[in-house]
C-alpha cells in the first residue's frame, strides 16, 4: 500500500468511527478532546517518517502497515508514541518493541511542520497499544532505546531528555529540550 492509499484508508476509518478511538486515546493521556488535531498530526508525522526512510533507502512498507487507526489492527505494533507537536497538534505512531522500526526520534525532533509553523516536538508519551500499563522492565528498556536513538544525533550538551513514569500510571512521558544559550539571543 502506498502512502496516499494509506492516508485515505486512515481518514476513512477515523471518520467511520467518528474519531471515538482518538477521543479515548486523548482522554487516557489527559490531552484536549480535539481528535482532529491527532488525525492531522499523525498524518504529518507518518509522512515525515516515510520521507526519512526513503532518504535512507530503507523500506517503509512494514512501518506504514503498523499505522492503523484502530491500534488493535496494527500489524506487529506494541507501543504507541504520541507526540505533542508544540501545542499545535498531536501525533500517534505505532512501533514494535524497539523504537527504530520506522520512527527516528532524532529525525523528527527538528522536522519543520509547515502547517503549524513550528519544528519538531516538545514531548511524547509511550503507552501500550493493548491498554495495559507499562511494566518497570518495559519502562527501563524504552528509556534506554529512546536515549540511544536521540544520543546518536544529539549529545548531552545539545539536548536534555527527561523521563516521567509517575504522572500517568503505566505511561512514560519523555520531555526533550535544547539547552538555552543566551549567546544565541544576542
Describe the model.
It is a single chain. With 186 residues, the chain is an alpha+beta fold. The protein has helices at 3-16, 20-28, 35-55, 61-66, 105-109, 136-153, and strands at residues 79-84, 90-95, 112-113, 118-119, 123-128, 160-164, 172-177. The strands form 2 sheets. The protein has a 5-stranded antiparallel beta sheet with strand order 2-1-5-7-6. A hairpin with a 5-residue loop joins strand 1 (79-84) and strand 2. The radius of gyration is 16 Å and the shape is globular.
Give me the Rg, rounded: 16 Å
| Order of the strands making up the biggest sheet | 2-1-5-7-6
Largest sheet: 5 strands, antiparallel
Overall shape: it is globular
Individual helix count: 6
* Approximate strand percentage: 15-25%
* Succession of helices and strands: HHHHEEHEEEHEE
Instruction: Report the mean per-residue pLDDT as an integer.
Output: 93
Structural class: alpha+beta
Task: Summarize the SSE layout with pairings.
Blueprint: H1 3-16, H2 20-28, H3 35-55, H4 61-66, E1 79-84, E2 90-95, H5 105-109, E3 112-113, E4 118-119, E5 123-128, H6 136-153, E6 160-164, E7 172-177
Antiparallel strand pairs: 1-2, 1-5, 3-4, 5-7, 6-7
Amino acid at each position: 500500500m502506498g502512502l496516499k492509499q494509506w492516508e485515505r484508508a486512515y481518514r476513512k476509518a477515523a471518520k467511520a468511527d467518528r474519531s471515538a478511538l482518538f477521543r479515548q486515546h486523548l482522554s487516557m493521556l489527559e490531552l484536549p478532546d480535539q481528535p482532529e488535531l491527532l488525525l492531522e498530526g499523525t498524518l504529518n508525522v507518518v509522512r515525515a517518517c516515510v520521507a526519512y526512510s526513503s532518504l535512507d533507502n530503507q523500506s517503509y512498507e512494514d512501518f506504514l502497515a503498523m499505522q492503523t487507526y484502530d491500534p488493535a489492527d496494527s500489524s506487529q505494533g506494541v507501543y504507541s508514541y504520541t507526540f505533542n507537536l508544540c501545542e499545535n497538534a498531536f501525533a500517534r505512531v505505532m512501533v514494535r518493541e524497539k523504537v527504530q522500526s520506522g520512527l527516528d526520534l532524532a529525525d523528527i525532533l527538528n522536522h519543520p511542520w509547515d502547517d503549524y509553523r513550528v519544528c519538531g516536538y516538545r514531548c511524547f508519551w509511550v503507552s501500550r497499544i493493548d491498554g495495559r500499563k507499562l511494566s518497570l522492565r518495559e519502562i527501563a528498556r524504552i528509556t534506554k532505546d529512546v536515549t540511544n536513538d536521540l544520543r546518536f544525533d544529539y549529545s548531552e550538551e545539545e539536548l536534555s531528555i527527561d523521563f516521567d513514569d509517575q504522572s500517568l500510571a503505566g505511561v512514560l512521558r519523555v520531555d526533550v529540550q535544547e539547552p538555552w544559550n543566551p549567546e544565541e539571543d544576542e
